[in-house]
Amino acid sequence: MEETEYIGKLERAGFTAIGVEPTRVYDFSEARAFLSAQGIDADAAAKQVQGRFMSAFVRATRPK
Questions:
Q1: Residue 6 has pLDDT above 70, yes or no
Q2: Who wins on pLDDT, 52 or 12?
Q3: Which of 12, 18, 26, 64 could be bridged to 53 by S-S, CB 3.0 to 4.6 A?
Q4: Per the structure, how many domains does the chain have?
Q5: Residue 16: which residues within 8 A CB-CB, separation 6 or more?
Q6: CB of 8 within 8 A of CB of 18?
Q7: How far is CA 15 from CA 3, 21, 30, 56, in A?
Q8: pLDDT (tens digit per residue) in 22-58
C-alpha cells in the first residue's frame, strides 16, 4: 500500500497528527522473498518494487 493511501485511511478513521518515519527501504533482492511468499512473480515485478518496500514507525493520535 502506498504511504499516502495508508495515511488517508488513518485520516478517514479519525486519526490525527499522523507521522510515518521510514526505518528501512528494501531493494529488489530483499523484497524478492516477500513477493515470492505472496505468490507474486518477483522477476516480473522487479521494476515496480525497487525501492518501494519499506518498514516504518507509524504514529498517530487516535480519535476520542
A1: yes
A2: 12
A3: 26
A4: 1
A5: 60, 61, 63
A6: no
A7: 15, 16, 32, 17
A8: 998 877 777 777 778 888 887 777 667 667 778 899 9
Alpha carbons within 13 A on the beta-carbon side of 59:
6
pLDDT band at residue 2, thresholds of 50, 70 and 90?
confident
Residue closest to 7 by CA, chosen among 56, 43, 40: 56
* Overall size of the chain counted in residues: 64
The pTM assigned to this predicted structure is: 0.64
**DSSP letters along the chain, please?**
--HHHHHHHHHHTT-EEEEEEEEEEE-HHHHHHHHHHTT--TTTTHHHHTTTEEEEEEEEEPP-
